[in-house]
Design a protein that fits this description.
Number of domains of chain A: 1
Shape of chain A: elongated
Oligomer: heterodimer
Radius of gyration of chain B: 18 Å
GO molecular function (chain B): ATP binding; ATP hydrolysis activity; transmembrane transporter activity
Largest interface: A-B, 22 and 24 residues
Order of helices and strands of chain A: HHHHHHHHH
Keywords (chain B): ATP-binding, Cytochrome c-type biogenesis, Membrane, Nucleotide-binding, Translocase, Transport
Mean pLDDT of chain B: 85
Pfam family, one (chain B): ABC_tran
Low-confidence stretches of chain A: none
Organism (chain B): Nitrospirillum iridis
Distance between the termini of chain B: 16 Å
Largest sheet of chain A: none
Largest sheet of chain B: 5 strands, parallel
Structural class of chain B: alpha/beta
Shape of chain B: globular
Protein name (chain B): Heme exporter protein A
Chain lengths: 218, 224
């Protein structure tokens, strides 16, 4: 499994494009908001959590379509499913690699963008913490959609339709946590719920992904 | 009944896309044996190989290894097979050596020497450090076949392994198959050209094509 993660990371470093594109998309998306809503500091502070979360969500979705596509098209996925690795292990490794190349850079850039949107400095820790819980969830849920749409024509259109509704709980709890922090309340309950979602997804998503990958090869 | 150390299929029936591909198909493969699948296009050669790899499940009948049905222990079955399909699983940005050591590593072989041996066995040692995007179709195919040698597995399932290969490479493949069989390994392959497999059995899938214009609705009926 570790070998597969390392291979995927190497693949991204050699070919680059996908992960960097997602990150650039995230940055540009957030940077565009002050131009759209105007530079009013109060407004920006108010909408900052939502803007960052939605941009993160769309960035995750952008890179998701290619998650299994490359390996599916060149036959690698078939061989992985026929290897002694359990299909669930393949799923976990692919998602872990995806999170490392899209989720983690996003975590690192998010505080800078938050400052741009006039988020108070004290809140940056909370922002990174929330994103640290939310981004793996986005990768896990998105990967289920990516596996299900594998081999379907126009999977690029199908994938957002399938996955975006499932992203709603993540968005709700993450945004509520950040809002609570901004208004001086404890973000703890929201983060706990987010953590609960993550635990559930960590167990269930690999099972669903594995089943979908197997079905794609029938 | 067959004696235990056999790879067998009994009474197989397969349906693909609502069409009956073959029925009443039986096969037996003893250690060291080779089964060559022949038949016209669409007669189910690839489908049978995918059934043997447990990528597909037969609608009726069972495939068993040592008397244990594949469905009961798919993980053990995956550990003992090599599958070479139509796609070569070559990544454009990885060199031949990297690709091969990854696939060997997935099967628990982390030995550099084994990878080098496999590269040499299919005469790709001279291009070991060339990235996948510069390989010709024949070279890609040879790299895919080198996986067979890099990590040993008792059962080889080869779906038209000779596609894209020149005469010299076909000879290398024949040599690898003979060596594998001499060590008790089993091979099932489909091919359209003559591939020398001494004492190998031939299974003509045309013989198991659906008889007459049998209605697909009767398929579930149990012949036994």
């Amino acid at each position: 499994m570790l070998r597969l993660i390392l291979r995927d990371l190497r693949l991204v470093f050699r070919q680059g494009s996908d992960a960097t594109a997602a990150l650039m998309f995230f940055v540009l998306c957030v940077v565009l908001f002050p131009f759209g809503v105007g530079p009013e500091p109060n407004v920006l502070t108010r909408i900052a959590p939502g803007v960052i979360l939605i941009a993160a969500l769309l960035a995750a979705l952008l890179s998701m379509e290619r998650l299994f596509q490359g390996d599916f098209e060149d036959g690698s996925l078939e061989l992985l499913l026929l290897s002694p690795l359990p299909a669930e292990g393949v799923a976990v490794a692919k998602v872990a690699a995806h999170w490392l190349v899209t989720g983690v850079p996003l975590l690192l850039v998010a505080p800078l963008l938050a400052l741009l949107l006039r988020m108070p400095v004290e809140q940056l820790g909370l922002l990174v913490g929330t994103l640290a819980l939310a981004t793996p969830l986005l990768s896990l849920i998105g990967a289920v959609g990516a596996a299900l749409t594998l081999g379907a024509r126009r999977s690029g259109v199908l994938l957002p339709l399938l996955v975006l509704p499932l992203y709603i709980p993540v968005l709700i709890f993450a945004a509520a946590g950040l809002d609570a922090g901004l208004s001086g309340l404890s973000p703890r309950p929201h983060l706990l719920l987010l953590g609960g979602l993550l635990c559930g997804a960590l167990v269930l998503a690999p099972l669903a992904i594995a089943a979908a990958l197997r079905a794609a090869h029938e | 009944m067959t004696s235990p150390p056999h790879f067998t299929g009994r009474d197989l029936l397969c349906l693909r896309g609502g069409r009956l591909v073959f029925q009443d198909l039986d096969f037996t493969l003893a250690p060291g044996g080779c089964l060559t699948l022949v038949g016209p296009n669409g007669s189910g050669k690839s489908t049978l190989l995918r059934l043997m790899a447990a990528l597909l499940k037969p609608l009726r009948g069972t495939i068993a290894w040592d008397g244990v049905a594949l469905a009961q222990d798919p993980e053990a079955h995956r550990a003992r097979l090599h599958y070479v399909g139509h796609l070569d699983a070559v990544k454009a940005s990885f060199t031949c050596r990297e690709i091969l050591s990854f696939w060997a590593g997935v099967r628990g072989v982390a030995d550099r020497a084994a990878v080098d041996r496999a590269l040499a066995a299919f005469a790709i040692d001279t291009i070991a450090d060339v990235p996948g995007r510069f390989l010709s179709a024949g070279q890609r195919r040879r790299l895919s076949l080198a996986r067979l040698v890099a990590a040993p597995a008792p059962l080889w399932l080869l779906d038209e392994p000779t596609v894209g290969l020149d005469r010299a490479s076909v000879a290398l493949l024949e040599g690898a198959i003979a060596h594998h069989r001499a060590g008790g390994g089993r091979v099932v392959l489909s091919t359209h050209i003559d591939l020398a497999t001494p004492d190998g059995a031939v299974l003509d899938l045309a013989a198991f094509a659906p008889r007459g214009d049998e209605d697909d609705g009767d398929v579930a009926e149990d012949a036994a």
